[in-house]
Amino acid sequence: MSANAGVGRNFAQLVAEARAALLAGDGVTLRRRLNERRFVRAVLTAWINDVSLARSTLSPETVRLLTAGGATSRLATVQAATLFFTHFDQLDTWHDGLFGAVRDLVRGAVGAQRAGHVSTIIETIHRHDSFLLEQTGPLQLAQHLLTTGEDISSWFRANHLTAHADSRFGRTARDAYYLTLIERANAENGNHDFLRAVTSDVLSRQRTESTEEDRLYFGHQVLRALTAKTTRNPSSDWLTAVLEIGGDPRARQAQRWKTWWSQVPAENLERTVRWMRGLDLRRFLEGVESYALGKDDDAMLRMLERRKRLLLGLYEQDRVNDVRLILGDHIRTDIRHRTSSPLHDAARLRDASMADTAVVYVDCGDFWLVEGSHSFKLQVYTGGAVEGLTDRGVTRFSGADLRTTIPSRNAEIYGGRSLLIVAHRGLEWLFKFLDFLVYHGITVDERGLMTANDYAELQRRRANEGRWTWG
Predict the structure, then answer these.
(1) Fewer beta carbons within 10 Å, N or C terminal of the chain?
(2) Distance, CA of 316 to CA of 380 (rounded, Å)
(3) Closest CA to 108 of 96, 122, 118
(4) Are the beta carbons of 202 and 246 closer than 8 angstroms?
(5) What average pLDDT does this structure show over 133-161?
(6) Is residue 88 a contact partner of residue 172, using CB atoms and an 8 Å limit?
(7) Which of 72-76, 335-339, 362-366 has the lowest mean pLDDT?
(8) Residue 441: CB partners within 8 Å, gap ≥ 6?
(9) 53 near 47, Cβ under 8 Å?
(10) Residue 451, φ and ψ in degrees, nearest 5
(11) DSSP state for residue 404 in the 8-state scheme
(12) Which pLDDT does position 1 carry in this prediction?
């Protein structure tokens, strides 16, 4: 049933009279005429059609006049519900106690109506009073729907509320549903398809809405909820939603960062930056794996397994402070095609002969790694952050920069014994890397960086040969 149904002849004139009485604050006229059903509908129509009029004249006192008039017909009940849902959580910001006054008007009007032969919004309010007429209703509804497995859009359709989906009530209910869904979801596993709808809603509303009084968009609440998860390894869909809403959390100079990430708690921001490090490590490893599979290179795949355990093991041990990808053009394109999350911060490896090569720079705080695919040797630095790779303003590198210029420059600055360069052969490269760290007094959980068999072999060799195999 439409809120404007049954207006009859000359109703526009009646609405004009209602507007005039409201604007003039003519309580005498309102008290006298609010026992007329058509005039009640005219007052409600005036408020529904003019937000400014509603904001300035809709008060608990005026609403009580409507209630006292006792002339709320079935049509007026639908209108009163429409008025309530349209402004919902904003009512108390207009006048203290206004939410409760309009809610009581609707509740009383609904209770006075006989059950109809056809189910309408009136019957819906009868059945779901606590969901629809209380300030905590949207959250209660969200929790109920997640318990029953129902979708909020389907529930609105089934309960004759589709017309109110974009009202303040509709949006508040949808927001509560999405945020509760995120809160209850496992960020690592499970079906995260719902995040596409959430992200779409966030982005469309950010383009068309202004911020709330706290200067936040709904997207800020979503971003905070997504990044509140304490996992180290959120799913690809989870990370995609984070990046599509907020962009890269490491890009502090970008306007997008100032819009979104500046409003996220520092703990959440730090966690998300850590997620980006893990994402970049996995992109590097997946890029190398894809290349090896494409070439049917079993030796590279076997070697990659040890690199994967090393890099992801360091990440799990919270040793990774920063990660930077440097990609050849072909492997960059391949990664873009295979992943749903965008490449925000990857530098370019400009040599045409290295188009299939991926290189990753890993800052572990007291040591630094430069690791690459193909025949690229592992570089381990202990003197300080690698000069030439820490400046993200430098976005293009040559193979000679990475293999010769940067290692030589850092050896000059920190001394030759602060640098290890080792080829990936069997287990030797891994054992030399670990002994190099031991020599420099750097402790890691070695067992967590390799398989049980490799760790046993490391212990056997050390027992027989001692350390310092890197020299």
Answers:
(1) C
(2) 19
(3) 122
(4) no
(5) 95
(6) yes
(7) 335-339
(8) none
(9) yes
(10) -75, 165
(11) I
(12) 47
Residue 114: burial class (beta carbons within 10 Å; 0-12, 13-18, 19+)? exposed
Give the mean pLDDT of 167-174: 95
Q: How far apart are CA 314 and CA 340, in angstroms?
A: 25
Q: Do the Cβ atoms of 305 and 355 come closer than 8 Å?
A: no
- Three-class DSSP category at 361: strand
Q: Are 138 and 169 in contact (CB under 8 A)?
A: yes
Q: Is 213 exposed, middle or buried (CB count within 10 Å of its CB: 0-12, 13-18, 19+)?
A: exposed
Residue the block writes with tokens 């979104």: 260
Query: What sign for the dihedral angle of Cα 67, 71, 73, 78?
Result: negative
Q: DSSP character for 71?
A: -
Q: Residue 445: what residue type? A: D
With H, G, I as helix, E, B as strand and everything else as coil, classify residue 161: coil
| Coil, helix or strand at residue 11 | helix
Report the alpha-carbon distance of residue 291 to residue 12 in Å, rounded: 72
- Token match 């959250």: residue? 139
Q: Give phi and psi for 149, each to the nearest 5.
A: 80, 15
Q: Which of 74, 67, 51, 137 is nearest to 102 (CA)?
A: 67
Q: Which helix (H) or strand (E) holds 218?
A: helix 218-226
Q: How many helices (H) and strands (E) does the chain have?
A: 24, 7
* Distance, CA of 185 to CA of 225 (rounded, Å): 10
pLDDT band at 404 (very low <50, low <70, confident <90, very high): very high
* Positive/negative CA dihedral, 226, 227, 228, 230: positive
Among residues 397, 276, 291, 278, the alpha carbon closest in space to that of 338 is found at 291
Contact in structure between 363 and 280 (CB atoms under 8 Å): no
In whole angstroms, give the CA distance from residue 76 to residue 89. Answer: 21
Average pLDDT over residues 424-432: 90
User: Rounded CA gap, 49 and 44, in Å?
Assistant: 9
Mean pLDDT to the nearest integer, 24-33 = 92
Report the chain's terminal Cα–Cα distance, integer Å.
85
Say what percent of the chain tops pLDDT 90.
72
User: What is the pTM (predicted TM-score) of this model?
Assistant: 0.80
